[in-house]
Amino acid sequence: MAQAASPYAVLAIGAHAADAEFSAGMVLARYAAEGHPTTILHLTLGEKGHRALSPVEYGAQKRGEAERAAEALGCRARFLDYPDAELPEDDAVKLAVADVIREVRPRVLITHWRGSFHRDHRRTHDVVVDARFFAGLRTIERERPAWYAGHLLFAENWEDMDGYRPDVYVDTTASFDRWLSACEAYEIFRDPAAGGFRYREYYTALATMRGCLARFRYAATLMRPDGDLVARSGALPG
User: Fold this and answer.
1) Measured between alpha carbons, how far is 65 from 83 in angstroms, rounded to an integer?
2) Between the CA of residue 156 and those of 5, 63, 83, 120, what are the distances in Å?
3) Model-level pTM?
4) What residue ranges define each of the domains in the chain, with the CATH number in brackets?
5) Fewer CB near the last or first residue (10 Å), C or N of the chain?
6) Strand, helix or coil for residue 176
């Protein structure tokens, strides 16, 4: 018989390496430190985004950065091998993600909000929503038994803000420094010229602002699917 999942086993799924760490890494670091299994699944490496390096060179760099960041957060890093900017949205990729969900058996699933100007982010949202459904269907026979992730949440990502409404505030005060150290593994976090955006300043300011609203020093927000209730308890639902 399969072992029951931890009440707060968390799986975060990002379109590119760095997406999940920057937007949900503080939450992952908090729950990892509290002893809950946390995993990041990268659908692509985001290997086509460097101004000087080839996709092959940058892909190798990004994978190493993702592995170091996950280790610093206390998470396990998983990778699928889809090419950056060419993420498909078919049943094959949805079933591949469903297989990871069945393997990891998370109670909480975190991914992109659909209101994004980035195609890979929008596709990741749709892939994960359907993969969660596929993973929970006993009639879809795969290597592992069905598993339904009870809570689906969308992370606050600067590229995914069209229609984003934060309604889960997680106290990340204790995990902020660990998150910051983990994100330093990424060149684009350390050097705005490398990524074309001031990720470090944006996400540290965001954590401060969200903390002010939630009466914590630092906080991360997430968004529930339509119809779920607002929560400002300072923790993940469940």
Assistant:
1) 17
2) 26, 23, 24, 16
3) 0.93
4) 10-234 (3.40.50.10320)
5) N
6) helix
